[in-house]
Design brief:
Layout: H1 3-14, H2 20-32, H3 34-51, H4 62-76, H5 86-116, H6 127-132, H7 135-142, H8 151-164
Helix pairs in contact: 1-2, 1-3, 2-3
């Protein structure tokens, strides 16, 4: 047994409240540990000093007054009911959870959907411009909706650099 466990059990040991096995373990530790033995001696001295004191006189009717006061306090207390029945609480919690899921879904949708088209304008080319473009330009036009950071976007940047001398057309 260690000192912490022994010090927690010293009062019960002194009062004879420990079972035989527990008392034997405390006694064994006390034989080996002078610190815990000194703590037990201090508790014994305190116990003897307290035994010599007279108890305080309790006024007559004290117990009856305490019971009446406790009964009156208990009668004035009402339980706090926030949502009524547990079923009502479940309904409120389900509505709050559904609202949070909807808000989270909107937030995720906006952040994922918004980042796919961020920084690009959606314009459709005129029919005359499409007719004038070469086969290469038609291939490049089909890649113009590429998401940022994709291989298609890198290809477009390279094609624009090669054709326009480093400038976009």
């Amino acid at each position: 047994m260690d000192c912490k466990t022994t010090s927690q059990r010293l009062s019960a040991y002194l009062d004879g409240e420990l079972p035989q096995a527990g008392a034997a373990a405390v006694e064994e530790h006390l034989r080996e540990c002078p610190h815990c033995a000194a703590d037990l001696a201090g508790l014994r001295a305190l116990s003897h000093a307290l035994e010599g004191l007279e108890g305080a006189a309790v006024p007559s009717g004290f117990a009856a007054r305490v019971r009446r006061a406790a009964g009156a306090e208990r009668a004035s207390c009402r339980p706090v009911v926030l949502f009524g029945t547990p079923r009502t609480l479940n309904r409120v919690l389900m509505r709050v959870a559904a609202g949070l899921v909807a808000v989270a879904g909107l937030w995720v949708g906006m952040s994922v959907g918004g980042s796919a088209f961020a920084g690009r304008e959606q314009t459709s080319p005129d029919a005359a411009e499409v007719a004038e473009q070469s086969e290469f330009d038609l291939q490049v036009e089909s890649l113009s909706a590429a998401p940022p950071g994709s291989i298609a976007e890198a290809y477009l940047a390279f094609a624009n650099y090669e054709d326009g001398g480093g400038q976009e057309q």
